[in-house]
Design goal:
CATH superfamily of the largest domain: Ribokinase
CATH architecture of the largest domain: 3-Layer(aba) Sandwich
Distance between the termini: 20 Å
Oligomer: single chain
Largest sheet: 11 strands, mixed
Shape: elongated
Number of domains: 2
Strand order of the largest sheet: 1-9-18-17-16-15-14-13-10-11-12
Helix content: 25-40%
Structural class: alpha/beta
Length: 466
């Protein structure tokens, strides 16, 4: 069961969820009080008793700002409201009437510790006007800390795109009621700072996207052996280093046995078994639970043949790197077993061309379109990672360490996901678990690590889930 705190709602789903609360007897003013008071708690801690400026606009996001300001005023905070426009909704007017502190017009000079942006909310669909943008940037420059309520003004909620240039960055974004796609999608996510959820009573929304969360993993059963824990076959190619790296990561993610199927003998760690028999023969082992194909495969005719042979086996598989460049609909025509694709942006574009997709929409829409066309779970990886399933399931990952931007970390991710698949997890769950473990391994690795060091941390990330 998906926790309501883990659901990610589009702007339309959020409006419907709020309407459901209203239909159930909760007034708009009550929702505004919940949101504003919950946000004020975070702002009060951040300000440390120093001055706060709340920038309000005409809508209900501005109304949240009036509630925040009054809550802080009652706690003794030096707070002032700068209003860019008078309230235009009944609930915002009511919140304005309850505020008993100073109100400044847009021309006023105001400096302080914390700026709270309540200018516009998730309903905005156009760029900020010049006066509003100038006001927001002027106040942002004159305050030490900046807090956005729900989303920074000028960010499109569903696509994570700025609606215009020149928006300031923030130190903290307080998310009202439920996560939105823009909280996890670039380039918007780079402007948000830390993100925290403020509950307002939103209930579960059927069909909503979810957040990738820490999995609950377990130690092997008391009677387990290497085959019952899962045998993963990594199909290597012209450049075995990437395959070895993926195999190393897979060992830390739970698989009991990791074998490297290579075209020739190569130097590997003592605990990685290498198999150099013809691929079709090696894949005849009925104990294999999952395959990983792509890291170090190459793009030659021989590589394409190895990919075709591997896909002819009706086994769960993860395709990464070179396999994604070689992949097309004909190769998948007879493959009916669970499949996971792990493309970065360039590989995603190549796959869209191969499957005759137009690449329209945001990252989530593109991943879903590819998942349906390829009948595979798609991990669209990058600084913002999205997981899509053919049945429409969608998951967003929290931002991971920017130190992941180094060669080989994608191979580590592929090995981690494939390991979870070999352990018997359903494909979408395996992708979510592998992506979380990858991000946690990066967190534990700290600063300035290589892919091999990241792979070493996967086992510690797994241990954190026990």
């Amino acid at each position: 069961m998906l926790a309501t705190s883990d659901q990610v709602l589009t702007a339309a789903q959020m409006r419907a969820a709020e309407q459901a609360l209203i239909a159930g007897g909760t007034s708009v003013s009550e929702l505004m009080q919940r949101a504003g008071q919950g946000a004020a708690e975070w702002i009060w801690r951040l300000s440390g008793g120093r001055s706060v400026t709340v920038l309000t606009g005409p809508g209900n996001n501005g109304g949240d700002g009036w509630v925040i300001a009054e809550t802080l005023r009652q706690r003794g905070t030096d707070v002032a409201v700068v209003t860019a426009a008078e309230p235009a909704t009944d609930a915002a007017c009511e919140a304005r009437s309850r505020y008993a502190g100073p109100v400044l017009d847009a021309a006023a000079e105001r400096q302080g510790e914390v700026l709270v942006d309540c200018l516009f909310g998730t309903g905005l669909t156009r760029a900020l006007g010049g006066d509003h943008l100038a006001l927001l940037n002027r106040l942002a420059a004159s305050h030490h800390k900046r807090v956005a309520i729900d989303l920074p003004s000028g960010i499109e909620s569903d696509l994570g795109q700025p609606l215009g240039p020149g928006l300031p960055s923030f130190d903290l974004t307080l998310v009202l009621g439920a996560w939105k796609p823009a909280h996890f999608l670039m380039p918007a996510a780079a402007l948000l700072g830390e993100v925290r959820l403020v509950p307002i009573g939103v209930q579960a929304v059927p069909g909503s996207a979810r957040l990738v969360t820490q999995p609950r993993l377990s130690a092997p059963a008391i009677d387990a052996h290497k085959y019952t824990r899962g045998l993963l076959a990594v199909v290597a190619g012209a450049m075995p280093g990437a395959s070895i790296l993926a195999a190393k990561a897979a060992q830390g993610a739970g698989a009991g046995y990791v074998k490297l199927f290579a075209p020739q003998r190569t130097k590997v760690r003592a605990d990685i078994v290498i198999e150099t028999a013809p691929l079709a023969e090696a894949l005849g082992d009925h104990r294999i639970n999952a395959l990983l194909i792509g890291p170090g495969l190459g793009r030659s005719g021989e590589a394409l043949e190895r990919l075709a042979v591997a896909l002819s086996e009706q086994r769960p598989a993860v395709l990464d790197a070179d396999a994604l460049v070689l992949l097309g609909p004909r190769l998948l025509a007879e493959h009916g077993a669970p499949l996971i694709l792990t493309p970065h942006d360039g590989e995603l574009f190549a796959l869209e061309r191969a499957f005759d997709l137009d690449g329209s929409g945001g990252k989530a829409e593109r991943a879903l379109a590819l998942a349906r066309a390829a009948k595979a779970v798609v991990v669209a990886k990058g600084p913002d990672s999205v997981i899509a399933a053919p049945d429409g399931r969608l998951a967003y990952a929290r931002r991971s360490s920017s130190w992941l931007s180094t060669a080989g970390t994608g191979d580590v991710l592929a090995g981690t996901v494939a390991s979870r698949l070999a352990c018997g997890e359903e494909a979408f769950a395996a992708a979510c678990q592998g992506l979380w473990l990858h991000g946690e391994a990066a967190r534990q690795a700290g600063a300035v690590f290589g892919a091999g060091q990241l792979a070493d941390q996967v086992r510690s990330a797994y241990a954190a889930c026990l």
